[in-house]
Amino acid sequence: MARNVDVDDTDFRNPAGLTKQLREKLPRRPKRVVRHHPALPYAEASQFVADLSAAAGIAASMLSFLIFTACRTNEVVDARWCEVDGPSSTWRIPGQRMKMNQDHVVPLSKPALAILDRMRDGGRSELIFPNPGGGSFSENAMLAVLDRLGYSHVTVHGFRSTFATWAEECTDYPDGVREAALAHKYKSETAAAYQRGQKLEKRRALMKDWAQFLTPASVIGFREAG
């Protein structure tokens, strides 16, 4: 038979009451530092594209394609011909390769299409940009191109920031169009509910303007990719 034990409530303290004391005694947690990928200023992007156009190799072509499409490294490294729709000049990246796990349709500008045309003549691999062995390049392959051209102070991912800064400062496209071009997730659920469409034609115009900004002479003299 259990005994009834009288307990004096004053013997116990509410743990919540210790919060203030703990905050005063424990060291403060350091603030999280957001580290941005070093990016090339957009004012220097046109010259870089001109330098890149003179570089030989598939990795250089791959980097050019990444810049004209403003896509992520893994999305381009594993790009496949079956994802490209020639008649509509689009490239559909499957969700499993996207950060948000949703298919992303990229409108392709003339320079981007020119790169694909050159690569199509170069081989029969399922990959658009195969390495010499026929498989996927390492994600460091494009970093090696940057280093070779004397741009080791920037990163491949940083070109997305270059595009984003140019689009914000030099164009009048709405935030939704610019964010959709980068396949970013809307921070506001309300905004997302109103922005379900991919704004393909508006993004097509944006990417066309980006290509014209990068190639003001409207001529791209890429060397052979092989």
Give the secondary structure arrangement, pairings included.
Blueprint: H1 19-25, H2 45-53, H3 58-69, H4 73-77, E1 84-85, E2 90-93, E3 104-107, H5 110-120, H6 141-148, H7 158-170, H8 175-181, H9 189-194, H10 200-214
Antiparallel strand pairs: 1-2, 2-3
Main sheet attributes: strand count, strand direction, barrel closure: 3 strands, antiparallel
Structure summary, number of beta strands? 3
- In round numbers, the mean pLDDT is 82
- First CA to last CA: what distance? 88 Å
Number of contiguous helices: 10
Structural class: mainly alpha
**Secondary-structure element order, N to C:** HHHHEEEHHHHHH
Low-confidence stretches: 30-35, 190-196, 219-224
The coarse silhouette is globular
Major β-sheet strand ordering: 1-2-3
- How large is the share of residues in beta strands? under 5%
Gyration radius, to the nearest Å?
Answer: 25 Å
The helical percent reads 40-55%
How would you describe this structure in keywords?
single chain; 226 residues; mainly alpha; 10 helices; 3 strands; 41% helix; 4% strand
Compact description:
By secondary structure, the chain is mostly helical.
Structure characterization notes:
The chain is mainly α. The chain contains ten helices and three strands; from the N terminus they run ααααβββαααααα. Helix 3 packs antiparallel against helix 5 and helix 8 (175-181) packs across helix 10 (200-214).
